[in-house]
């Protein structure tokens, strides 16, 4: 007799073999049919109880949410919708669930309600599917880089540098906040803090990954990052995960080749290994969109969008070319764009989606952005106006990831630091790598939750991370 998961049991040929299953009750109908789920698959298995041969008091404890163990024979199902079912001989109640108090009864719940029940929402079909897909993508990321000869680097979570130069960082301190030590000029005396200097939670592992790449050639980080940006939107989190590969002796073209191959590998992996979950999420999305006005519905379904990325070569254009295309487009001429289209301003999601979904009808990589709104570490192009940066645009979401060739020239890097207000003493170690064996190198950063949003079709980033951290919310 095997004690196994729902997924394992459903893969068996039902020939009356004895099985044992521990799982949670989804529904119990007619005092006879138990739908059981253990999270191993989107599918449930039906366990059939002969109520005349079981204690009535025990049957009253088989409620939605209860944990039970059943033993019995695996036989061909007589009903529709399943190929096999368990003919139950024994039932054990592992943990009861009071139907008057259990909040996840079998009915439709809003995403807002489920965020308030983050400790239980894993048990729903939607979140079970999301987090199985999230796991598969995480595994695929490590698998891809390992196959390509990259080394995983654990970059620090506590840092003294601000990689983005944005200043929106979470302070790390052990100082007594009721009695903060001050210097003679009235500023906080960080020399008395644990690290004897001002420290924060990291916003990126990129700079440290660059240091490793300049010795190990090909590296990547995959870890938590933190932004103290007070953005209460569907696309922002205060704590999220980032994948950041860095490659030495690589230019912007190499970087584009890597990101295209990487993203197509991940989408292909999800399509091949998460079929049941993606089909469920695609059906869920289609049902949700029926209530939306036609102009707010996505032009492609979930599976179609994934196959769109998987099968199309990415179009590569410069920022200047993108501006020209947008300014000559019908939406621009008819004043349909909400945001202005001007050289020197960043592109908005509506512009990016037009390029992907309407103009090129394929994923797009835009390169050579104006230096004025890009980070100090991006390599300055020969025109002294643009940098060797890239953004990758996907259908439905616009920008999915961004990267650049890094500035390897010491004099130019020092000048860029000065222009961007980056104090050299804070990144002296980064600058020093340009003094000893500098070489061209490149990399990109992919927000893991943005990727999971795209692959699952979810529209709010708080629904693709187990316990979202947002302004005013740090529960669970």
Give a short overview.
The protein is α+β, with helices and mostly antiparallel strands. Helix content is 31%, strand content 23%.
What does this structure look like?
It is a single chain. This protein has an eight-stranded mixed beta sheet with strand order 7-11-12-17-16-15-14-13, with helices on both faces. A five-stranded mixed barrel has the order 2-3-4-6-5. Strands 8-10-9 form a three-stranded antiparallel beta sheet, with no helix packed on it. It has two domains: 6-95, Beta Barrel (OB fold (Dihydrolipoamide Acetyltransferase, E2P)), CATH 2.40.50; 125-166 and 203-463, Bira Bifunctional Protein, Domain 2 (BirA Bifunctional Protein, domain 2), CATH 3.30.930. The two termini are 39 Å apart. The chain is α+β, with helices and mostly antiparallel strands and 476 residues long. The protein is built from 14 helices and 17 strands. Helix content is 31%, strand content 23%. Homodimer. It is found in: Cytoplasm. One of its GO terms (biological process) is asparaginyl-tRNA aminoacylation. Its main location: cytoplasm.
List descriptors:
2 domains, five-stranded mixed beta barrel, nucleic acid binding, 14 helices, globular, 476 residues, BirA Bifunctional Protein, domain 2, alpha+beta, 31% helix, protein biosynthesis, NA-bd_OB-fold, single chain, OB fold (Dihydrolipoamide Acetyltransferase, E2P), 17 strands
């Amino acid at each position: 007799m095997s004690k196994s998961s729902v997924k394992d049991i459903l893969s068996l040929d039902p020939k009356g073999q004895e099985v044992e299953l521990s799982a949670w009750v989804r529904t119990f109908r007619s005092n006879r049919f138990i739908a059981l789920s253990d999270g191993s698959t989107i599918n449930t298995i039906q366990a059939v109880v002969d109520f005349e041969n079981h204690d009535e008091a025990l049957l009253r404890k088989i409620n939605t949410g209860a944990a039970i163990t059943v033993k019995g024979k695996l036989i061909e199902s007589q009903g529709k919708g399943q190929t096999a079912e368990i003919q139950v001989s024994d039932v054990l109640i592992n943990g009861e669930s009071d139907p008057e108090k259990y909040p996840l009864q079998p009915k439709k719940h809003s995403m807002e309600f489920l965020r308030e029940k983050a400790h239980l929402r894993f048990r729903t079909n939607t979140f079970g599917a999301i987090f199985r897909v999230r796991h598969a993508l995480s595994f695929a990321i490590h698998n891809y880089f390992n196959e390509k000869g990259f080394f995983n680097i654990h970059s620090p979570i506590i840092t003294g540098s601000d990689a983005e130069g944005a200043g929106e960082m979470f302070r790390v301190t052990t100082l007594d906040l009721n009695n903060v030590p001050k210097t003679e000029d009235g500023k906080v005396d960080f020399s008395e803090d644990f690290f004897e200097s001002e420290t924060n939670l990291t916003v990126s592992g990129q700079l440290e990954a660059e240091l490793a790449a300049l010795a190990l050639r090909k590296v990547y980080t995959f870890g938590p990052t933190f932004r103290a940006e007070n953005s209460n939107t569907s696309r922002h989190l205060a704590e999220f995960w980032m994948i950041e590969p860095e490659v030495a002796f690589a230019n912007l073209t190499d970087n584009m080749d890597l990101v295209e191959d990487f993203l197509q590998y991940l989408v292909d992996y999800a399509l091949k290994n998460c079929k049941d979950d993606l089909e469920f999420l695609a059906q869920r999305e289609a049902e949700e969109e029926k209530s939306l006005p036609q102009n707010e519905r996505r032009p492609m379904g979930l599976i179609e969008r994934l196959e769109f990325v998987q099968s199309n070569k990415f179009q590569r254009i410069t920022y200047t070319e993108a501006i020209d295309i947008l300014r000559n487009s019908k939406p621009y001429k008819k004043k349909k764009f909400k945001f202005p289209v001007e050289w020197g301003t960043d592109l908005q999601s509506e512009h990016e989606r037009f390029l992907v979904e309407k103009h090129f009808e394929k994923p797009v990589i835009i390169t050579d952005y104006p230096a004025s709104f890009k980070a100090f570490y991006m390599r300055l192009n020969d025109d002294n106006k643009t940098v060797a940066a890239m953004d990758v645009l996907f259908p439905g979401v616009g920008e999915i990831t961004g990267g650049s060739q890094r500035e390897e020239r010491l004099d130019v890097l020092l000048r860029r630091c000065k222009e961007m207000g980056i104090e050299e003493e804070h990144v002296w170690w980064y600058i020093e790598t340009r003094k000893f064996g500098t070489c061209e190198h490149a990399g990109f950063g992919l927000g893991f939750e943005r990727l999971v949003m795209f692959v699952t079709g979810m529209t709010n980033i708080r629904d693709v991370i187990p316990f979202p951290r947002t302004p005013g919310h740090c529960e669970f």
